[in-house]
Amino acid sequence: MDRKPVIVLVCLAVLVVVLAIIGAVAVARSPTGGVRESWFGSPQGGRLDPADLRVASGACDVSGLVLTFTGACTLAVTPVDGGLPWADAVRRVRLQASTGRVVVAVQVQDRTMRTTLDPGEDIRLVFTRDGGPLSLGCLAVGGCSAALAQDP
Fold it and tell me: End-to-end alpha-carbon separation of the chain, Å?
């Protein structure tokens, strides 16, 4: 009886198990909050920065990590450029209402999701590779402000 094929199969099985363990350890040790560079140089995941926001309509002011607005405004989250289509390229942020009651609305699969935040309350937002609109409304006289905070 020839044992050569059995030995080759056992060696391949051991190799597969070792590679799976190495992959699991590498994923467990990767930081989830920071921006990771892909092999092709495009950003993958990470925090939504103020530079990723463009005023689409309304009276919004983006200065540093603070968004100041009166009435209603819409910010466009810019799409992620480059990389492979299946690569993880989401942006995460925690939006915290600072002054006034703030209405937050985002598009999720062709549906608008809304919530109202009182001062001090926050909401975690995730934007996909395509970006999308972030609509803010102020329910207070004199304007509102909200802060972009790191999502733990």
Answer: 59
Strands 111-117 and 102-108: antiparallel
Output helix, strand, coil percentages for the chain, rounded to the nearest 5. Answer: 20, 45, 35
The pLDDT tens digits of the residues spanning 89-109 come to 778 889 999 998 999 999 887
CATH code: domain 43-149 is: 2.60.120
Pairing of strands 66-77, 53-63: antiparallel
Which sequence spans correspond to the domains of the chain?
4-30, 43-149
For residues 92 and 89, give the distance between their C-alpha atoms in angstroms, rounded to a whole number. Answer: 10
Q: Exposed, middle or buried by CB within 10 Å (0-12, 13-18, 19+), for 46?
A: buried
pTM score, whole prediction: 0.65
